[in-house]
Design a protein that fits this description.
By secondary structure, the chain is α+β, with helices and mostly antiparallel strands. It has 13 helices and 12 strands. The chain has 2 domains: 197 residues, Ribosomal Protein S5, domain 2 (2-Layer Sandwich), CATH 3.30.230; 185 residues, Alpha-Beta Plaits (2-Layer Sandwich), CATH 3.30.70. The strands form 2 sheets. Strands 1, 2, 3, 4, 5, 6, 7 and 12 form an 8-stranded mixed sheet that branches. Strands 9-10-8-11 form a 4-stranded antiparallel sheet.
Length: 398
């Protein structure tokens, strides 16, 4: 038997910055997705304990599944591994999860990481010449698995159809490169570890799952992709006007002290693109780095103000907030959280609150009770979890 566990993640800060080459502050959580593989009879027979259904997959064979179905992610994994590394042995794949689904903690990417690594190990792909040549370390592995999900090529490893979202490698990097008790500061396109900062020992994250689905292959896909298309349009305008070939928006903004102002002038009459630019610049070049320094200095007042600014920019620049997540942020701060923010793709999902570790249980109970009273319909699906920054994905012991 082969098996892997992949944790969920909290995007502490860095809303929609990763695929633009920007800075992100992330950590893994203490819950996730487990994939175990045993020899099978035909194809990949996959079963999910969370969804109580089963599917059979074959590399290169299309399957009809409802939008947002967990099997879509497994299908792209099976297709891509077969295309890049050769035939897969027949197997029975079991998926188990204690991470809330479509919650913004990236259960979908955790499914990709856990299932891809379990199948790669089961088939010996992770010891193959092609794997070793292309995937040198955990950061590269995260990049490859992000390409599995979004369909892009990765170096010499050809692309295939992904799940339909144009995302980056933030989630996969957080899952594979996290360190217990620390937040990781990463830049992207290409992914690189910039540094780590320890979360003070007396603090913990309480995550409130809003009960409003944040499925990236479901109803939110078009809205999610609009944010990434906006970045692509900003970069194209800049490169055309400046006669440059910058690979991402972060490189464009960093290329000259006046670059951000120039890009602003290019989209001055287009409010959506202007707001998207300003959100990215504020989040990546100011809020994320300054928050790392606030954590290192244990300046909790400054951290709270910076996170509040990030939340405002999400509402104004990404237009991806909903009343439920905004209410959770407000109530979290009212109840005494050091800071509180929605996170993930937006359009639903979850909110984190940074609180006193000893009082986390009572905070979580009061926070959830107030939310359920105010929002009874999604509140019926809401939940909370308490976590410190956790360690990375790993193989299971035999």
């Amino acid at each position: 038997m082969s098996g892997w566990f992949a944790p969920g993640r909290i995007e502490v800060l860095g809303k929609h910055t990763d695929y633009a080459g920007g800075n992100v502050l992330v950590c893994a959580v203490n819950r996730g997705v487990t994939a175990t593989v045993k020899p099978g009879r035909r194809g990949i027979e996959a079963r999910s304990t969370a969804q109580e259904d089963a599917i059979t997959l074959e590399p290169g064979v299309a399957v009809r599944l409802p939008a947002g179905h967990w099997g879509q992610y497994l299908n792209v994994v099976v297709d891509r591994l077969g295309a890049n590394f050769g035939p897969l042995r027949p197997a029975r794949l079991a998926i188990d999860a204690d991470l809330p689904l479509a919650s913004g903690m990236s259960s979908s990417s955790a499914l990709v990481v856990a299932s891809a690594m379990a199948l790669a190990q089961f088939n010996g792909f992770d010891e193959s010449e092609a794997w070793v040549a292309a995937i040198r370390d955990e950061v590269a592995l995260a990049g490859y698995l992000a390409c599995v999900e979004n369909g892009s090529a990765f170096g010499a490893l050809s692309g295939r159809a992904g799940v339909g979202t144009f995302g980056g490698s933030e989630d996969h990097t957080a899952m594979l490169c996290s360190q217990a008790d620390h937040l990781g500061l990463f830049s992207f396109n290409p992914a690189a570890l910039v540094g780590r900062v320890r979360l003070p020992d007396d603090l913990a994250f309480v995550v409130a799952v809003s009960g409003v689905s944040a499925e990236k292959t479901g109803a939110a896909k078009d809205a999610y992709n609009q944010a990434s298309r906006g970045v692509a349009e900003l970069l194209a305008r800049w490169n055309a006007a400046a006669g440059r070939g910058d690979a991402n928006l972060a490189a464009a903004v960093e290329s000259d002290p006046e670059a951000a102002a120039v890009i602003e002038s290019l989209v001055a009459d287009e409010p959506r693109l202007l707001a998207r630019l300003r959100q990215f610049v504020a989040e990546s070049t100011w809020i994320v780095p300054a928050s790392v320094e606030a954590l290192r200095a244990d300046d909790r007042a400054a951290l709270g103000e910076l996170v509040a600014a990030s939340q405002r920019w999400a509402a104004d620049g990404l237009d991806n907030q909903i009343p439920e997540t905004e209410a959770l942020v407000r109530d979290g701060r009212r109840l005494g959280a050091v800071a509180a923010s929605s996170f993930g793709a937006g359009f639903g999902g979850s909110v984190w609150a940074l609180v006193d570790r000893d009082g986390a249980d009572s905070f979580a109970a009061e926070w959830l009770a107030g939310y359920v009273r105010a929002h009874p319909e999604p509140g019926s699906r809401a939940a909370t979890l308490i976590t410190r920054p956790a360690g990375p994905a790993h193989a299971l012991a035999d």
